[in-house]
Amino acid sequence: MHLRxxxxxxxxxxxxxxxxxxxxxxxxxxxxxxxxxxxxxFKKTNNTMHDRYIILDYGKRSEKIYHCGASSKDxxxxxxxxxxxxxxxxxxxxxxxxxxxxxxxxx
Length: 107
Fold this sequence. Notes:
Layout: E1 11-15, H1 25-34, E2 39-43, E3 52-56, E4 64-68, E5 82-84, H2 89-100
Parallel strand pairs: 1-2
Antiparallel strand pairs: 3-4, 4-5
């Protein structure tokens, strides 16, 4: 539901290995039925990620990267921090690799 206000011209990419199967095809299909104009793609991280990040406008002048101290499902339940990353270049190589990773297929 965090994505319900995304503009229709934006593609959201979620990177995860979905090890605990929290991302489910049925939930995605329900979301697509309710918000058909929002495109969400899924890619594997290949076990390269632990922390959570929000990356907006990747590769554009308006690019912003945020490091999230908690899962989005837990945000607002306890004290957590989301901080803007000032040195975005540190993450460029990592994100470029993630983008080329295989598609994560939800079940």
